[in-house]
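---------- Forwarded message ----------

FYI, see the ornithine carbamoyltransferase record below. Original note from H. follows.
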Amino acid sequence: MSRIVQNGTTATRTLHYAAALKTLPRDMVSLSDYSAEQILALVESAADLKNKTKNHGQTFHPDQPLKGQTVALLFSKRSTRTRVASESSIAYLGGHAMFLGKEDIQLGVNESLRDSAQVISSMVDGIFARVGAHNEITTLAQYSTVPVINALCDENHPTQILADLLTIWEVFGQRRPQAKSMLDVFRGLRVAWVGDANNIVYEMLAAMPKCGFDMRICTPAKYPVPERVRQMAEGDAKEAKVSVEYFTDPEKAVKDADIIVTDTWVSMGQEAEKAQRLRDFEGYQVSGEMAKRGGAKNDWVFMHCLPRKPEEVTDEVFYSDRSVVFQEAENRKWTILAAFAALLPKKKSN
């Protein structure tokens, strides 16, 4: 049994999925590569680590699984939450974090990604990479001899979605105290995405349907979710007996929503498109009035992976009691910590 932190309180929960931690793939490129049980096991582990730290005074992992090991943090893009979460997590596990920004190394510039992967992985025990194109993270994983964890690429953001799932577990675990497992808490919850078709929603679709969520995805007609992502999500939804639907009208998408999620409309590298994008996303701002008109549930909660811009969500929602954005941000640490603890203390590949 473990006492799990839920919004500052605790609840006793059985760790149902711990055995699945032993079956994880070597790398974490996308949660599409993980089963529902493996995803839930990582979230349970994160909740357990959070509980032991915040409620029982555990300031470092007692086994120090990364003692004597170095983890390379390859960051082609700047970051706040990801960098703080990853460096503090490695210290918690007894390891050494080596931060390598785009000014520090020649990642795919004067040296190929293949060569960089082979060289860097020969000297470290794990790689946590925040990159641009999806093929950069897959190339690193292909040619690295140590585990590679995707800290962000233009198609995926697995550690963010793990943090989202931990946050949902904390909030709705309190509301569903009779649920016997994390899957029981998640099953039937309706998540409405209102925003761009980007790496966050792709990763949500890679993980949430298989974990029992009904999904409502709303993007402007000019920004559709790619067909390959739709097919993957619909296959998972069919197997899990849940639904995934797509909309262009935000008010239709949020009907009966338990959770409304959005993200930036102008990602890093899209600054030149800002004026056009703001026009294209007119009417997509998440507000209390929009949610009420659309028929979201009375106790719906709001999520955003940050940083946030006012055009995406009103202050009235963002700073309200229904917003869990800062709890969600903190949970980046606990889920990254769980991923490191599960994946990195492994021997190198031959």
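H. also flagged this: The chain has two domains: 2-156+330-343, 159-325.
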